Amino acid sequence: MKRLRAAAATFACMTGMVCTGAFAQAVALQGMLGNKALLIVDGAAPRSVAPGDTHMGVKVISTSGDEAVVDIKGQRRTLRVGEAPASVGGTGPSRATGSKIVLTAGNGGHFYSQGAVNGKAVYFVVDTGATTIALGASDADRLGINYKASGQQGRVGTANGVVNVWRVQLDSVRVGDVEVRGVEAAILPTSMPYVLLGNSFLSRFQMTRSNDQMVLERRY
Questions:
Q1: Going by C-beta distance under 8 Å and a sequence separation of 6 or more, which residues neighbour residue 59?
Q2: How far, in Å, CA of 213 to CA of 104, rounded?
Q3: Which of 124, 147, 177, 183 is the most buried (most CB within 10 A)?
Q4: CA distance readout (Å), 122 to 29, 140, 159, 175, 206
Q5: pTM, whole model, 2 decimals?
Q6: Could you give all domains of the chain from N- to C-terminal order, each with its CATH number?
Q7: Residue 35 — left, alpha, or beta (φ > 0 → left; ψ -120 to 50 → alpha)?
Q8: What pLDDT is recorded for position 89?
Q9: How confident is the model at residue 114 (pLDDT cuts 50, 70, 90)?
């Protein structure tokens, strides 16, 4: 857990970077400012958007409590604070065949992929500097991970200082068609718009990168 670096609600390593591409658009609700929705669209810096307004092609239809109804590429989705991003359009930034995963970078140079943890959908961003997979407490709750009862408590350094975490073992992690079982993860006490795909998963693969592509070939 020595190098778990990019976590916290603001997702500091992504601030100010717009990561778009010819794949699904991902939209997360980070919080509410009055009746305005604080949206994170494709990893860009959070933006407060009032009902009726549009940001990066995402229109806010209405807000209530910790929820916002938005229009993403003609499809209405209900977003909730702290939940995994809604993803609409495209075929996803990754494709997998057998033991190989091919990821294509967004404009900010980050690699995204739709996938699953313990059989439930999540949206990953590759973080080669993170020792383990890292996810926020709200995602862990959504995924049914009983981390407070079964996890081992610890402290790690992140971009926003030292925080308490719970270390757990995930039953399965899937990216595309490739599934890895028994993967270590850290649960952070804050919400995160993405799940960090760290080295507890990546170390199972031989990694090569060429221009805007990253290829992961399974080693074991």
A1: 52, 53, 70, 71
A2: 5
A3: 124
A4: 14, 11, 22, 10, 23
A5: 0.62
A6: 21-81 (2.30.30), 94-218 (2.40.70.10)
A7: alpha
A8: 61
A9: confident
